[in-house]
Amino acid sequence: MNVLLSIAFVLTWSSGFIGAKLGAGSASAVTVLMWRFLPLALVLVVVALTVARASWRGLTARDALRQAVVGALSQSGYLLTVYYAIQLGVSSGTTALIDGTQPLVAGALAGPLLGQYVSRTQWVGLGLGVTGVVIVTAADAMGGTDAPWWAYLVPFLGMFSLVAATFLDRRSPHPVAPAVSMTVHCVTSAVIFTALAVGAGAATPPAESSFWAAISWLVTLSTFGGYGLYWLILRRSGVTQVNTLMFLMAPVTALWGALMFGEPFGVQTALGLAVGLAAVAVVHRGKDSTATVVRSGREAEAATAAPRQSASRKSA
């Protein structure tokens, strides 16, 4: 996996938790999400009708419907739960912790659903990743907040929503161009969040400049950066590898919070970040080992098959 893409993905994806906190200070979750996606969807539709028309050729109604469902799960379902949890009082660090359990779920399902089995070494790396995430957010989770107990279950719904979207996309028989999938996802989310905001009487944006600063942050960094890179790396490197990077979201989010909001970033957070980095390295080493075994097995099969084919030709 390209190191620069990985670093950019971790930074931009984790920025979404900070953007959610920025937006929550001036408007409700559905208001922020409506104005995050409505203008973006309009721009992407214009681009699709002009300079990107060629990318849409060959797209069937079934492919478009699949991508709409993927968008509803990966954007609408995932983001609404993250924003709602933070609005209820769950800290961004704890929300990132729950989101950080996604690699274990994805790793367990990758084999039976996609045939991308996780090696023993990779499972060790996944276990290290969970350890690092817990280290980073343990103090925050035990610090006590005003959030009701059931609010901590909300981010789990979003995590499962994103996992479901990931596997639904990977099982698609026809790959869709990234520009097309991004447009369908954003239009779907714009429709859903606009309907929710209008229904709740929360469609009118606040006049504060901080609100629009948060919207600009979310569109630029979180949507084009984090969300776009998620699908790009997923298609290049597979489910286990891209989801392993999720282990870095909790410590990096804590660092974002320390720089922007003065939240504490101590030895415990630094230790968790180090463990998370080790987890990523172990998982990718496990991937390389698995690839070597597969290549060796194929070479052995080829070497065994060659004499048989030769003997068969002589007999003929």
Task: Please describe what this structure looks like.
Helix content is 79%, strand content 0%. It is mostly helical and 316 residues long. The C terminus is likely disordered.
H/E series:
HHHHHHHHHHHH
Query: Which parts are unreliable, with pLDDT below 50 for 5 consecutive residues or more?
Result: 290-316
Mean pLDDT over the residues: 79
Roughly what percent helix? over 70%
Structural class: mainly alpha
**What can be said about the biggest beta sheet?**
none
Overall body shape: globular
Descriptors for this entry?
316 residues; disordered C terminus; single chain; globular; 12 helices; mainly alpha
What's the short story on this structure?
It is built from twelve helices and no strands. With 316 residues, it is mainly α. The relative contact order is 0.20.
Secondary structure layout plus pairing:
Elements: H1 3-24, H2 29-49, H3 61-88, H4 92-99, H5 102-114, H6 120-142, H7 154-170, H8 178-199, H9 209-237, H10 239-244, H11 249-261, H12 267-315
Helix pairs in contact: 1-3, 1-4, 1-9, 1-11, 2-8, 2-9, 3-7, 3-8, 4-6, 4-11, 5-7, 6-11, 6-12, 11-12
